[in-house]
């Protein structure tokens, strides 16, 4: 007699292939389980990527979900993470085509999904800088809110995301060019905000562990721009900790 | 948290009254309307992470006793328990301090792939032993007694040698878990597979039944689909009355997961369950 594991393997095979043998009665009803598991996967993906679904329509989204599930089946009883590789999948699938921008839009939507399950920590204000000597300021490193995600794209994907928060949005003119910005939770609400490129580069460098001095140099900000950027990260409540980079931290 | 006293009665704070399955769409309405329901139940997996959802559940938990109901462990999977998932369940128990914790008598993964569905088990001695061992393992790790729920079935394994209620009774005996009887699932499976729903209710060990679920189902031709998308049907209410007459008053949950109506519709269904409890046994405080 087949073992329990063998029975479960044959059941799983029948969930993928209607022609596979599985010792159950009535076998036709396996279609209900086949439909349940593919619908559960698709619904979870749709909940994570509502703008992609709105832009490509139900049928094409269904096809994408089908092929994505074949390549990246669910690896957990918690469906929350099934979309983790969807942006990369779209990038491979749509590379060089007219819809390559969908992969970048998917990055924004997945960042939203990640941000939504992050805790919001108490922010520190600019007064924290008074704790450090003027000589230390260039070597300061910042820790940002856990929900903060930063993205840049050669496509206007922030505008696409924002426009599609209203049902029936018109397509965004792709000739608008690239955009960069942040996604985060702020005051229990999701925030998706395009940023000027200098400010984005500065935030990106700090988020990457670079010092205040390195971030200023990398972003090309002049002194007034730098002071504005510094004011921005504190006034927006992005900073949760400031410390001096230790020489042991490496380059 | 549910623990056994020396008489085998779970010590929890879920009253033997009707409650409702809390879904995201009702979080705000529950806090604003404060309906007179006995308790709430939430899907454990929906509160694994940080963010707004668990904060909302904490607010709801401050007003109602809570049961956590898992849909993702698949404790009958021959490949074993997903320990990462089990750890998240433990974290949720620590955070929300539920009075009851439940899972399903099903499997959900094999060969590393998860199907995110409540898949049926063959009713064999081998499956009893495996499910009971994994229920014990989970109970030991979580530090609570688990209630195990019967699932709706659309197929039966040709290898099955036991009736479903015999299978569940044996799992209870070998693991010291409790039972969560879903009356709609008993009805759906009995209609789909030609089984005797009355024999099921008459057969399970009454003292082990610590919770009851009620929900609606859909009809697709001759097949009943357990979609939790409508009111409880009259046949299921009849079975529920029989069950309560036999088991005594038990915490009873109204579940609704698709085409979810306004909160007061669920509260109305819960009030009907309360009337059944009151007529047969008087409501427990």
Task: Note down, in words, how this protein is organized.
The complex is a heterodimer of chains A (about 250) and B (about 280). By secondary structure, chain A is α+β, with helices and mostly antiparallel strands. Chain A has 2 domains: about 1-115, no CATH class; about 120-250, Outer Surface Protein A, domain 3 (Alpha-Beta Complex). Chain A is about 45% helix and about 15% strand. Chain A has 10 helices and 6 strands. Chain A has helices at about 5-15, 30-50, 50-55, 60-70, 85-95, 100-115, 155-165, 195-205, 210-220, 225-235; strands at about 25, 140-145, 150-155, 180-185, 190-195, 240-245. Chain A has a 3-stranded antiparallel β-sheet, with helices on both faces. Chain A has a two-stranded antiparallel sheet with strand order 2-6. Chain A is elongated, with a radius of gyration of 23 Å. The mean pLDDT of chain A is about 95. By secondary structure, chain B is α/β, with parallel strands linked by helices. Chain B has one domain: TIM Barrel, CATH 3.20.20. Chain B is built from 9 helices and 15 strands. In chain B, helix 4 (about 125-140) crosses helix 5 (about 165-175) and helix 5 packs parallel to helix 7. Classes of the chains: A alpha+beta (about 250), B alpha/beta (about 280). The interface between A and B is large, with 39 and 46 residues.
Offer a concise description of the structure.
The complex is a heterodimer of chains A (251) and B (285). By secondary structure, chain A is an alpha+beta fold. In chain A, 47% of the residues lie in helices and 13% in strands.
């Amino acid at each position: 007699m087949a073992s329990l594991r063998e029975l479960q393997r044959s059941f799983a095979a029948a969930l993928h292939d209607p022609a596979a043998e599985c010792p159950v009665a009535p076998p036709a009803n396996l279609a209900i389980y086949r439909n349940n598991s593919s619908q559960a996967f698709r619904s979870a993906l749709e909940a994570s990527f509502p703008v992609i679904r709105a832009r490509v329509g139900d049928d094409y989204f269904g096809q994408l979900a089908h092929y994505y599930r074949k390549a990246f089946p669910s690896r957990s009883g918690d469906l929350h993470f099934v979309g983790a590789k969807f942006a990369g999948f779209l990038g491979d699938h749509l590379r060089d085509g007219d819809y390559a921008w969908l992969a970048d839009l998917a990055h924004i939507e997945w960042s939203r999904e990640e941000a939504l399950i992050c805790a919001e920590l108490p922010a520190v204000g600019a007064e924290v800088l008074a704790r450090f000597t003027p000589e230390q300021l260039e070597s300061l490193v910042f820790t940002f809110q856990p929900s903060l995600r930063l993205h840049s794209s050669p496509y206007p994907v922030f505008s696409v995301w924002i426009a599609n928060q209203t049902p029936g949005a018109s397509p965004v003119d792709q000739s608008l060019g690239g955009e960069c910005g942040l996604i985060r939770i702020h005051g229990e609400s999701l925030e998706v905000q395009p940023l000027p490129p200098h400010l984005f580069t500065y935030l990106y460098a700090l988020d990457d562990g670079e010092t205040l001095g390195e971030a200023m140099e990398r972003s090309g900000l002049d002194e007034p721009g730098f002071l504005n950027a510094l004011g921005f990260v504190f006034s927006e409540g992005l900073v949760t900790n400031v410390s001096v980079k230790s020489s042991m931290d490496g380059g | 948290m549910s623990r056994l006293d020396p008489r085998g009665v779970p010590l929890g704070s879920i009253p033997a009254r009707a409650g409702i399955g809390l879904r995201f769409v009702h979080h705000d309405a529950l806090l604003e309307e404060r309906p007179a329901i006995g308790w709430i139940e939430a899907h454990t997996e929906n509160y694994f992470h940080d963010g707004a959802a668990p904060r909302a559940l904490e607010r709801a938990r401050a007003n109602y006793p809570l049961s956590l109901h898992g849909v993702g462990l698949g404790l009958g999977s021959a490949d074993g328990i997903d320990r990462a998932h089990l750890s998240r369940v433990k974290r949720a128990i620590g955070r929300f301090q539920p009075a009851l914790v439940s899972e399903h008598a099903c499997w959900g993964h094999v060969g590393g792939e998860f199907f995110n569905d409540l898949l049926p088990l063959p009713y064999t001695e081998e499956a009893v032993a495996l499910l009971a061992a994994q229920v014990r393992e989970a109970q030991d790790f979580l530090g609570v007694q688990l209630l195990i729920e019967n699932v709706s079935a659309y197929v039966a394994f040709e290898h099955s040698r036991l009736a479903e209620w015999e299978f569940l009774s044996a799992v209870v005996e070998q693991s010291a878990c409790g039972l969560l009887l879903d009356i709609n699932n008993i009805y759906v499976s009995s209609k789909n597979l030609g089984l005797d729903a009355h024999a099921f209710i008459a057969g399970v060990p009454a003292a082990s039944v610590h919770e009851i679920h009620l929900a609606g189902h859909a009809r697709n031709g001759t097949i009943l689909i357990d979609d939790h998308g409508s009111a409880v049907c009259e046949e299921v209410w009849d079975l529920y009355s029989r069950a309560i007459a036999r088991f005594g008053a038990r915490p009873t949950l109204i579940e609704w997961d698709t085409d979810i109506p306004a909160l007061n519709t669920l509260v109305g269904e819960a009030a009907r369950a309360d009337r059944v409890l009151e007529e047969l046994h008087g409501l427990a405080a």
